[in-house]
Amino acid sequence: MSARAAARLVAKAICAVSAGVDPELGVRGGGIGQARAVLKPVLAEYPDDTGMLRAMARVHGDAGEPDDARAIYLGILQRDPQNADAKRALERLAEKARELATLQKARRAQGYAATGVDYLNKGGYAPGIGNLRVIELPVEARLPVGTSGGRVFVQVDPAMADAGPLQSASLADQRQYGTVAARSKNGLLNAPGQSARGTALAVGYEGQNLRADIGSTPIGFPVSNVIGGVKWSHYTAVSGFTVEVSRRPIVSSLISYAGARDPVTGMVWGGVVRTGANMHLGHDYGRLNLYLEPGYYRVTGQNVLSNTDAELRTGFNWAFIDQEDMRLKGGLALTYWHYAEDMRYYTFGHGGYYSPQRYAAVAPNFRWSGREDRWSYLVQGSVSYADVYEKDMPYYPTDPALHALAAANPATTPYTPPPLHR
């Protein structure tokens, strides 16, 4: 038997191994990974052999890779337009694709309801000030619209946000909150707990390339805002873009998310939202992927100094290895933020959210993925270096009179509030 004939017998056996059937015993065994491992060196020696190309196409089909299988069969037909086996295989692939499309369409035509629990716990400056714990119980219903696969959705999210109680024993911490430094010389002996409860509402539409929604932050919070957005995307095999215009809450602290009541005067401040637009642009040049993500927002809240936020993220990824069973990509990401004002503090008029005047970061990264027989693996990571600048800010940026009152009202302890947040 010639080497080529022997190789073809191997190829036939590989088809059975790929499907998980021992070709002689007729029992389940082997696997796709084993099939690839045996076929690769055979194809390297006989790259134009139609029988072995069909065997590799069969392996791709069994592995759930119809595009790769289709490409091989089309290559066979380019060399041999009358190859009946390749034509039948392409017909089978097309039929499976139609069946899958029909199944997906039927699934999209079904509505559903779902619920769950979302939990967030963030440490901050101090209990009652910068800490934040949020529990949400979202309930969502989706109903199909038309024949394009789009759905309308309605969402109801009961929510509880809690920062904990202000620490009565720490006058220095208390004076970093609300109007305590200006209006309560010796602090608060019975500091109240800082929490809020409410229910968020939303209704919207989500299709293949378009998503739109409108709703509210939890009604019942000290500050409730109308929020929503529209996002449109379009992607091809090598390029694409996404444009989004939105108004969203900043969930960074109790002040920024829910708003808070000043423990001295009862005045409400906070409930910060970002209103603006961003875009993602991406393009593949062979192994190289380039992307650009600009954005601009106006940041506002009740009794909070207004702010602006300009953002830019760009970078590239390079495919060092791009094989059937292994991919290794590495790249570099560059990030830049610029806020006009530093609103990260918790005194009255500040927003309680991170807002540096300059944040520039560089982050090399990698992603290594692959599969071996029945096992798959993913290893990824990155390191970053950032340069950050934050300017000094008044204690009470929206009320100079409060700032002057704080400076003229020193505590009975040696602590005296500085004229600026530093």
Biggest sheet layout? 17 strands, antiparallel
Secondary-structure content class: alpha+beta
Strand content: 35-45%
Helix-strand string = HHHHHEEEEEHEHEEEEHEEEEEEEEEEHE
* CA-CA gap between termini: 85 Å
- Number of helical segments with 4 or more residues: 9
Record field, number of beta strands? 21
Low-confidence parts, pLDDT < 50 over ≥5 residues?
A: 17-30, 412-419
Q: What is the radius of gyration computed over CA atoms, rounded to a whole number of angstroms?
A: 30 Å
Q: Overall pLDDT, averaged?
A: 84
Apparent shape: elongated
Share of residues in helices: 10-25%
What would your notes on this structure say?
- By secondary structure, the protein is α+β, with helices and mostly antiparallel strands.
- 24% of the residues lie in helices and 44% in strands.
- It has a 17-stranded antiparallel β-sheet that branches. Strands 6-16 form a two-stranded parallel ribbon.
- Helix 1 (3-18) packs antiparallel against helix 2.
- The longest helix has 25 residues, at 84-108.
- Residues 17-30 and 412-419 have low confidence and may be disordered.
Show the helix and strand layout.
Layout: H1 3-18, H2 32-45, H3 50-62, H4 66-79, H5 84-108, E1 112-115, E2 118-122, E3 132-136, E4 139-145, E5 150-165, H6 171-174, E6 177-178, H7 180-183, E7 193-206, E8 210-219, E9 226-235, E10 239-249, H8 254-257, E11 260-261, E12 268-285, E13 288-302, E14 304-322, E15 326-339, E16 346-347, E17 358-372, E18 375-382, E19 385-389, E20 393-394, H9 400-407, E21 420-421
Parallel strand pairs: 6-16
Antiparallel strand pairs: 1-4, 2-3, 3-5, 4-5, 5-7, 7-8, 8-9, 9-10, 10-12, 11-12, 12-13, 13-14, 14-15, 15-17, 17-18, 17-19, 20-21
